[in-house]
């Protein structure tokens, strides 16, 4: 939990290898979109591994994507052991920006003269 939320503040690309471009009935004029509430993150572990599980909270009534890109593939075969490494930074970009902002504010407060 970077910011204490189980819902990452993802910033996903619209086009490209990991883009989520679809026709949502609205014009998107930015290269990235946010996905409030669409994703959940949970730390999981077993006897040999620890990982961060990402769940897409798809809803047929929601016009947004019901899946996200990021799987590593060879042809049509998904390499499951790679996880979502193609988008791991995108999944938490908003959280990282918020964390950097709060750390910067804390430093400024501690070093104010």
State the helicity in percent bands.
10-25%
Describe the biggest sheet? Answer: 2 strands, antiparallel
**Regions with pLDDT < 50 over 5+ consecutive residues?**
none
Shape descriptor reads: globular
> Over all CA atoms, what is the radius of gyration?
17 Å
The N- and C-terminal alpha carbons lie at a distance of: 32 Å
Which class best fits the helix and strand makeup?
A: alpha+beta
Beta-strand residue percentage: 15-25%
Number of strands: 6
Give the domain tally: 1
Order of helices and strands: EEEEEEHH
The residue-averaged pLDDT reads 84
Spatially, the strands of the biggest sheet line up as: 1-2
* Helical segment count: 2
Question: Would you give an account of this structure?
Answer:
With 113 residues, this protein is of the alpha+beta class. The protein has one domain (11-110). Helix content is 19%, strand content 21%. It has two helices and six strands; from the N terminus they run ββββββαα. It has helices at 88-91, 93-110; strands spanning 11-13, 32-34, 39-45, 50-56, 73-74, 77-78. The chain has a two-stranded antiparallel sheet. The longest helix is centred in the C-terminal third of the chain and has 18 residues, at 93-110. It is globular, with a radius of gyration of 17 Å. The two termini are 32 Å apart. The model has no long low-confidence stretch (mean pLDDT 84).
């Amino acid at each position: 939990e970077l910011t204490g939320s189980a819902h990452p503040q993802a910033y996903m690309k619209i086009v490209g290898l990991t883009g989520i471009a679809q026709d949502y009935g609205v014009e998107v004029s930015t290269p990235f979109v946010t996905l409030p509430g669409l994703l959940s993150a949970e730390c999981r572990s077993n006897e040999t591994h620890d990982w961060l599980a990402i769940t897409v909270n798809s809803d047929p009534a929601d016009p947004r994507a019901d899946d996200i890109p990021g799987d590593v593939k060879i042809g049509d075969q998904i390499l499951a052991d790679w996880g979502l490494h193609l988008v791991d930074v995108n999944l938490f970009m908003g959280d990282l920006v918020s964390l950097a902002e709060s750390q910067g504010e804390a430093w400024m407060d501690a070093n104010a003269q």
